[in-house]
Amino acid sequence: MKTNVNLQPYNSFGFNTVAKYFVEINDIQELEVLITTDVFKQEKHLVLSGGNNVLFQNDVFDGLVIFINTKGIEILTEDENEIIVRAQAGEDWPDFVKFTVCKGWHGLENLAHIPGKVGAAPVQNIGAYGIELKDSFLQCEAFELETGKTKVFGKEGCRFGYRESIFKNELKGQFIITSVDFLLKKNAPLHLDYGNIKAYLEQNGIEKPTLLQLHDAICAIRDAKLPDVKQIGSAGSFFKNPVIEKAQFEALQKEFPNIPHYDEPNGKVKVPAGWLIEQAGWKGWRNEHVGVYDKQALVLVHYGGGNGHDIVELARKIQDSVEAKFGIRISPEVNFV
Ligand SMILES: Cc1cc2nc3c(=O)[nH]c(=O)nc-3n(C[C@H](O)[C@H](O)[C@H](O)COP(=O)(O)OP(=O)(O)OC[C@H]3O[C@@H](n4cnc5c(N)ncnc54)[C@H](O)[C@@H]3O)c2cc1C
């Protein structure tokens, strides 16, 4: 266990928050020992994987950071149609997706290039390009910090929702996901209908993409619109897309006829938060340290020299102005620490 560790390399905003205690877990059995220590018993703790979805609000994290770095990928079962593969929590998500794609296994390709680790993926049921983690999720194993017991969570037990799960809500901070099992297909139709996948493939003369070509296309599309966190700090989409009542949407549509929207199965309507933020005049806004990314208004960025407080303040101003213009209070997707 280390003390006073600068978390700058461990969070994609690149803030210089210092953790009072920091422990790296390379083997799950180390958790059993950790929970018997005085530091664990006395300090508050934070489970940290890649740090791509956390916002450290303060310059000091007054507690214990448990950094998960366990590795391993294994095939559990396989037949001619499908395969069940287990990945340990500390495996890099984009590398794992590429691994499955190169094997010719379908299911995760549209989730390519989402930064982070496998163990964090169920926490907010990561999603992109019309697919969510839950679509290929079978179950995960999780270590209960209070009891040291391991529990298996199936799909139902995870209570997945839009960027939500039980681990982000009721059981927040209580379990460490230690491994995730995925059910992948050896043959399945590709999902090309979302966003500009088809346009990109057409522009690049690809008529019938292979799994790998689709994976690479998604990586290229993402690179073109999202900042590279090695150069500009961010946590990707900062806010969730609000889901509103149909009546509220129809009233808004009268005032803003071009408002983009997606009908939800429950009769409600999802509105892109990026559009709301852009209409409120924030796209490309910046001060010395932080701003709103000029290619995607949903992404708040840290240009350097700032701290979590700068982002919190900016986020609040954006929320207020979107609410004043549209009557919708957008809420963060990012985990505030
Ligand atoms: C440029 C960029 C683009 C992004 N694009 C997308 C996108 O398209 N779709 C999307 O859904 N997300 C996106 N994100 C958000 C982020 O990549 C995902 O949320 C990812 O799963 C975070 O993984 P991480 O390992 O960095 O988790 P962390 O940031 O370390 O942790 C996130 C949360 O999960 C908890 N946690 C972490 N590991 C565990 C564990 N093993 N067990 C229990 N709890 C745990 C943490 O305490 C924290 O609350 C993007 C982020 C960036 C920076």
Comma- or semicolon-separated keywords:
9 helices; Uridine Diphospho-n-acetylenolpyruvylglucosamine Reductase, domain 3; Uridine Diphospho-n-acetylenolpyruvylglucosamine Reductase, domain 2
Q: What is the level-2 CATH architecture name of the largest domain?
A: 2-Layer Sandwich
Shape: globular
Major beta-sheet overview: 5 strands, antiparallel
CATH class of the largest domain: Alpha Beta
The total count of helices amounts to 9
- Spans of at least 5 consecutive residues whose pLDDT stays below 50 are none
Helix-strand pattern: EEHHEEEEEHEEEEHEHHEEHEEHEEHE
Strand content: 25-35%
Number of strand elements: 19
* Integer-rounded radius of gyration: 21 Å
Number of structural domains: 3
Cofactors, ions, other ligands: flavin-adenine dinucleotide
Give the % helix.
Answer: 10-25%
According to CATH, what is the topology of the largest domain? Uridine Diphospho-n-acetylenolpyruvylglucosamine Reductase, domain 3
Overall pLDDT confidence: 96
Termini gap: 21 Å
Report what the structure shows:
The protein is an alpha+beta fold. It has 3 domains: 2-68, Uridine Diphospho-n-acetylenolpyruvylglucosamine Reductase, domain 2; 73-185, 2-Layer Sandwich (Uridine Diphospho-n-acetylenolpyruvylglucosamine Reductase, domain 3), CATH 3.30.465.10; 233-336, UDP-N-acetylenolpyruvoylglucosamine reductase, C-terminal domain (Uridine Diphospho-n-acetylenolpyruvylglucosamine Reductase, domain 1). The protein has helices at 29-34, 38-42, 93-102, 155-158, 197-203, 211-225, 246-255, 273-279, 308-326; strands at 2-6, 18-25, 45-48, 54-55, 60-68, 73-78, 82-88, 127-128, 131-132, 137-144, 150-154, 175-185, 233-237, 243-244, 262-263, 269-270, 290-292, 299-302, 335-336. The protein contains 9 helices and 19 strands. The model has no long low-confidence stretch (mean pLDDT 96). It is globular, with a radius of gyration of 21 Å. The strands form 6 sheets. The chain has a 5-stranded antiparallel β-sheet. Strands 1-2-5-3 form a 4-stranded mixed β-sheet, with no helix packed on it.
